[in-house]
C-alpha cells in the first residue's frame, strides 16, 4: 500500500506459535510445560461470562483512547480493503473439530454481526472469529470514519489469527497499518484557551488503541523479518508511556494505567530478546527493570518465568520472595524442573494438589506433574494422569500435545489413539478457556 495516498509515512520470519505456550517452552522440547496462565481473549467480555452478548465490548478496547470530534475524523478506508485479508482455511484442523465459517447475511445489521462475533470469542472459536472480523471489515456495514470499531475489529482479527496458530498470516496483514508512529495516527488534544497554561505539558494523542499498537509491533517485526524493529518499537511507545506518567495534569487513575503499561512493555522487551536468542541482553534488561512493589503479580510472574527461560534460577528465586505464598509454592516445583530435579518436582506438584487450602489450577498442576513423571520414566503414570484430565473435560494445548507425545512413546497404535483423542475433545462442552479451532500440529498428526 502506498503511504502517500493516506498522508502517512511508510517507514523475522517466524513459525506459528500456539497461544498457550509459556516462556519455558523450548522449540525442540518433546514436551510442553504449562505456564499457569489461561488463553487471553482479544477483548474483555464480562457479559459473555453469563451468556449475554451485546457487542458493546468492541467499544471498550482502550479506556484512554481519545474520542474524535467530527472535525478530527480520520478516514480508515485503507483498512477496509478486501486485498488486506488472506483467505482462511480449515484444512489443517482435524475434521471432528471443524465448524462452518459464519458470514453476515445480506439483511443482517452491524449490531447483530458484532453479537455473533462476541459469542465466537467467548466460546473460543478464534479462527471463526478472525474470519468474521475480516468479513465485517470488508462489508458495507462499516463506516470508514468509525475509527474505534475499525481498530477493535482489526485488533480482533490479528489477535485471533495468532491465537489460532496463524501468526505468519497475522504478521502479513499487520502491514496494512503501515507506520503507527506516523503523524496520521495522532491528534492534538482539545484545550480551552483559559486552561491552556495548565496543560502545556499535554501531548498529541494516538488514535489507535494501546493493545493494537503493542500487538502490531510484534507482528510487523515478524512480517518484515526484522526482530530489532520490534525492540525499537517497544522502546518508542515506552517513551510515550513515560511522558504520560510525567504529565503534571494527568489523572491519578490514568497515571496508574500508564505505569502498568510501562511495566508490561519492559517484560515484553525481555521476551523479544529471549525469542531472538540474545539471553545476555535479556538478562541485563531484566536486571534493569524496576519490578517494584506497585507492579501487579502478573508482571512479576512473567518476569520470573523469563528468568527461568534464561537460566538464572537464583535471580528467579529472589524475585519470588516478594510473591504471595500461593505463587511461591507454584514456582518451587518449576525451580526443581529447571535444575533437572524431576523426582523432587513430582513430590512438590503432588504436595500442591494435596493442599486444598491453596487456590491453584489443578488441571495445569496435574499436567505438569505428568511431564515430571514422564521424565522420571514413569510412563504409565504420566499417561493415566493426562487421560484423566481429558476425561474431566480439560483440553488445553500443552495437555493435548503432551498426551500425544506419550501415545507415541508407549503404543504402536499412536495414530489411532490420537484420532480417538480428537474425537473425545470434539465432544467436550464449550467453556471459552481453550482454542476450539486447533491445528493438527497440536495433536502431532
Number of helical segments with 4 or more residues: 16
The largest sheet, given as strand count, sense and whether it forms a barrel, is:
2 strands, antiparallel
Task: Indicate the structural class.
Answer: mainly alpha
Number of domains: 2
Q: H/E element string?
A: HHHHEEHHHHHHHHHHHH
| Shape descriptor | globular
Note poorly predicted spans: 1-28, 44-50, 191-201
Mean pLDDT: 83
Rg is 23 Å
Helix content: 40-55%
Region (Disordered): 1-39
Organism: Aspergillus mulundensis
Protein name: Trafficking protein particle complex subunit 12
Characterise the protein shown here:
- The chain has 445 residues and is mostly helical.
- It has 2 domains: 312 residues, no CATH class; 122 residues, Serine Threonine Protein Phosphatase 5, Tetratricopeptide repeat (Alpha Horseshoe).
- The protein is built from 16 helices and 2 strands.
- Strands 1-2 form a two-stranded antiparallel ribbon.
- Helix 7 packs antiparallel against helix 8, helix 12 packs antiparallel against helix 13 and helix 13 runs antiparallel to helix 14.
- The longest helix is centred in the middle third of the chain and has 25 residues.
- The chain is globular.
- The N terminus is likely disordered.
Amino acid at each position: 500500500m502506498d503511504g502517500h495516498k493516506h498522508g502517512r509515512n511508510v517507514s523475522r520470519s517466524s513459525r506459528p506459535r500456539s497461544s498457550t505456550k509459556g516462556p519455558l517452552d523450548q522449540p525442540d522440547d518433546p514436551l510442553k510445560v504449562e505456564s499457569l496462565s489461561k488463553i487471553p481473549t482479544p477483548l474483555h467480555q464480562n457479559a459473555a461470562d453469563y451468556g449475554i452478548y451485546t457487542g458493546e465490548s468492541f467499544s471498550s478496547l482502550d479506556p484512554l483512547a481519545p474520542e474524535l470530534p467530527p472535525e478530527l475524523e480520520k478516514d480508515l478506508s485503507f483498512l477496509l480493503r478486501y486485498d488486506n485479508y488472506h483467505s482462511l482455511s480449515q484444512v489443517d484442523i482435524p475434521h471432528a473439530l471443524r465448524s462452518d465459517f459464519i458470514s453476515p447475511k445480506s439483511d443482517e445489521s452491524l449490531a447483530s454481526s458484532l453479537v455473533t462475533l462476541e459469542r465466537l470469542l467467548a466460546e473460543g472459536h478464534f479462527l471463526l472469529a478472525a474470519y468474521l472480523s475480516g468479513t465485517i471489515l470488508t462489508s458495507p456495514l462499516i463506516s470508514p470514519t468509525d475509527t474505534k470499531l475499525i481498530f477493535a475489529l482489526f485488533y480482533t482479527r490479528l489477535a485471533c489469527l495468532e491465537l489460532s496458530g496463524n501468526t505468519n498470516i497475522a504478521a502479513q496483514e499487520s502491514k496494512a497499518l503501515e507506520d503507527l508512529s506516523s503523524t496520521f495516527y495522532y491528534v492534538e488534544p482539545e484545550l480551552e484557551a483559559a486552561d491552556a497554561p495548565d496543560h502545556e505539558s499535554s501531548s498529541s494523542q494516538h488514535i489507535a488503541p494501546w493493545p493494537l499498537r503493542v500487538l502490531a509491533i510484534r507482528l510487523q517485526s515478524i512480517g518484515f523479518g526484522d526482530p530489532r524493529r520490534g525492540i525499537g518499537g517497544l522502546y518508542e511507545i515506552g517513551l510515550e508511556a513515560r511522558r504520560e506518567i510525567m504529565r503534571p495534569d494527568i489523572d491519578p487513575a490514568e497515571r496508574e494505567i500508564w505505569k502498568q503499561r510501562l511495566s508490561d512493555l519492559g517484560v515484553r522487551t525481555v521476551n523479544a530478546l529471549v525469542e531472538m536468542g540474545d539471553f545476555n541482553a535479556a538478562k541485563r534488561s531484566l536486571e534493569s527493570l524496576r519490578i517494584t512493589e506497585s507492579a501487579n503479580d502478573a508482571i512479576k510472574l512473567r518476569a520470573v518465568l523469563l528468568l527461568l527461560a534464561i537460566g538464572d534460577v537464583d535471580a528467579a528465586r529472589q524475585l519470588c520472595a516478594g510473591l504471595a505464598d500461593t505463587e511461591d509454592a507454584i514456582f518451587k516445583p518449576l525451580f526443581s524442573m529447571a535444575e533437572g530435579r524431576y523426582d523432587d518436582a513430582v513430590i512438590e506438584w503432588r504436595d500442591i494438589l494435596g493442599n486444598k487450602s491453596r487456590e491453584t489450577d489443578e488441571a495445569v498442576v496435574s499436567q505438569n506433574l505428568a511431564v515430571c513423571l514422564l521424565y522420571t520414566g514413569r510412563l504409565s503414570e504420566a499417561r493415566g494422569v493426562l487421560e484423566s484430565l481429558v476425561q474431566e473435560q480439560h483440553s488445553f494445548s500443552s495437555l493435548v500435545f503432551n498426551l500425544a507425545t506419550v501415545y507415541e512413546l508407549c503404543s504402536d497404535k499412536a495414530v489411532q489413539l490420537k484420532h480417538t483423542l480428537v474425537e473425545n475433545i470434539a465432544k467436550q462442552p464449550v467453556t471459552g478457556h481453550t482454542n476450539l479451532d486447533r491445528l493438527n500440529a497440536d495433536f502431532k498428526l
